[in-house]
Model the fold of this input.
Amino acid sequence: MSATALPPAGLPASAGETKTTYLNWSYSVKDWLLTIDHKRIAVLYLISISVMFLLGGFAAMAIRVELTSPHGQLMTSEVYNKMFTMHGVLMVFFFLVPSIPATLGNFVIPLMIGAKDLAFPRLNLLSWYLYTIGGLMALGAMVMGGVDTGWTFYTPYSSVYSNTNVSLTVIGIFIAGFSSIATGINFIVTVHKMRAPGMTWFRLPLFIWAMYATSVVIILGTPVVAITLALVVVERLLHLGIFNPALGGDPILFQHMFWFYSHPAVYIMILPSMGIISEIIACFSRKRVFGYSFIAFSSLAIGVFGFLVWGHHMFVTGQSMYTSMVFSALSFIVAVPSAIKVFNWTATMYKGHVWFTAPMIYALGFIGLFTVGGLTGLYLASLAMDVHLNMTYFVVAHFHFVMVGGATLGYLGGLHFWWPKITGRMYPEGWAKLAAAISFVGFNLTFLPQFIVGYLGMPRRYHYYPAEYQIWHVLSSAGASVLAIGYGIPVIYFLWSLKYGPKAGDNPWGAVGLEWMTTSPPPMENFHEIPVVTWEAYDYDSMTESEAQADRESMPGAGAAVRQEAARDAEEGHPETGHPSP
Amino acid sequence: MSVEVAEEHGHHHDPALQHQFQDMDQQNESYVVGMWTFLVTEIMFFGALFLAYTVYRGANPAVFLEVHHHLDVAKGAINTMVLLTSSLTMAMAVYHAQMKNRQKQMMYIGVTIMFAFTFLIIKGFEWKQKFEDHHVPGPHFEYVRGEGHATIVQGPPTPVSAIRMSNGQTVNFPKDTIEPDFSNKAQLFFSLYFVMTGLHAIHVIIGIGVMGTLFFMLMFKHPNVDYYMPVELAGLYWHFVDIVWIFLFPLFYLIPGS
Amino acid sequence: MDHNAPVSPYQPGETHQTHHVTQPKVYYIVYVLLVILMSLTVAASYINMGSLNNLVAMTIATIKAVLVVLFFMQVKMGTRLTWVWAAIGFVWLIFLFGTLGDYITRNWISVTGW
Done:
């Protein structure tokens, strides 16, 4: 099929500074929109996903501004319902689920395992088109008047009574679900079949284990929500009553089927992020990840156990109490593998040489915030507490801690970590650290008050509330403004770096990994020679100091920060051998 | 599958080898595993509907038992035979693809397509009958219970079987008359029936499209069809469609009981 | 593509499904079995065995499905990876059917105060 974009054979060998990379071999629109190169598709996704994040963020700002006053100054209740629905739908289905897999996963996975591309490159391109079409449909529904059911689409309101654009939104989500499934299929087959010679399972970077577990969860869960949402549309359009109690249907069945996916979905969102954290912490502690196999198996365990806890979203809906007890117990168990990871990351840093770059700051933030989010999840998992806390802002705070403080922080850390590889440019480290700090402060200011106001009884999805809650809401909204600044700064400097950032070398961080053994940005075929892997993952121990120095300094345009650190270390005379000084 | 000959490396490659793969074995296994991964998603897709079916049949066994008699077992059984046979012919098509016999591939794929159309036609007659009986759920649904019961024609009223008076007394509607919501539950049965057989029919139509494409590619001797994998993948899909029907048939048409 | 590097990360002894061709005879035998099982299931539905009926019908359907998966879909002759993926889908359905736990236990003895 010559319509897809491969460069002609026999490209001229590079001379001097101008190398032929996946970015510059062709600038035509056709070669971008019909590309089958996983790296280009990752960039396409990065653009679409950023747009969705921005729009979801606008909805969040609208919500937070509205909530500064107790009596609905800005919008009617109907509009408010549409705002939080839009925020939820865009953020969950169009940002959190695809973000890391489709951008960083797509880009990095073949590089990390030493492959030329994913197993099914054209399926990859199709998945981007499906995502974009689904996204446009959901946005179209928003523009045409919105949806007011909440992102959870509970029946029979969504299937019978709501007068908003439910069907269009749901069909958009359905199509995006197939995008997700396509990505999952691609990753699973790639990891099984496309590893470089010598790359055994236990030499894989932990990011790959995390992405593999994520992909398995995607495959097994997404179809269930797809059919569930399809049934809602069918019920709306054709009046086939599956969930309508007036016809003998059970709305709780909808919730079972919906949460059977939507709980594992949160593991789809967090597992890739955890994989990134493993990479970042290893690199910036200059140490092999402590308990490699524990972390690897805990990713799989989270994936499996994540499918057994969905009923904890339904404790107060009328679900059988015995079932609730079982789900509660399982929900406690599912926290254990996550805790294992946190302990192992901490142990990795112990006696490592910790280097506080921007990605490392995001990773450290992740560990703290994810722990808080996870622990508050346990409060919600206990039945008696949940009766009081369910449907309050406590739940909202809990999931924002894990989703924003966890998944999004990991995504940002990963973007920073792999930015030089993706673009060939370094971002300004000083600004990056500042932005990380600002978003950390902003995040806590936004969501910590929400725990308090939720505990005090503030319901979620309400914009009218008693005056005594106002102080907490104002604090939260103030925090949201700070957080917005913290997110806005990276947008500016990332774009700036594309033209003005210093050129990055192959391995500006001195990291161990196959992706760092090719140029930044990589050539079209990833590797000029497929490497043969004979070393273990995270083999920082055997990197001598001089190797690390040479790595980091010798590449033209190695980040100024790296040179400064190296010069300072040389002055101060760090004597340890075997561990490169940060 | 595109035809890319990597002659710049000076080796002879199977023209069907894609650039991201090292050799045909890796490619073939990747395609088969990939297809099975997709079929797993289909299993979960249909599986959720089977769950809904189980829940509602478990809650309303008498309704399902009585109402299912309105389905035509003969047509269902014939359709089952049709699909089983089409699975056989598809398997034969895959065999001849592996044997690189173009004529026989075309014949077997053509026969499979014919069986698929037969299935759809018979299903069409079934659905037409249901439409005429006013058993299609929605505003025109009417369920008339048969001899031995009082015949009441009902639309979808709200289900009320008892009320509590303000003095604490409970008044039950008489149990020996028609339960007011029998019709609603019958509508539930037919909703499940149409959704599940409808989704299955959509998959049959897609299967026809895929097989039709293969048929024309064979007819016009498109170079891709020297490679047996497209036919094998289509075969896997078609067998899955058959398996879904293997479960649908007894669940809807053969509910046991007097 | 560099042909000096080892070609693929295969472990020795791994079977390759690609060269395996099932003989038509196998397909015909399986087909006959499927038809017999189908007739059995129709016949069984007319015999009243009480609650056993459902079990019989589903067992027969499962056997038919397994025959199709193993032989028509060639999983029996395929690699272990294919077999694992074929099995996972059906196993995962069991998790999904855990939902039935809610419906079965809803009417059990309730606990005071709930």
Notes: Confidence is low (pLDDT under 50) at residues 1-18 of chain C. The radius of gyration of chain C is 22 Å. The longest helix of chain C spans residues 24-45. Chain C is about 60% helix and 0% strand.
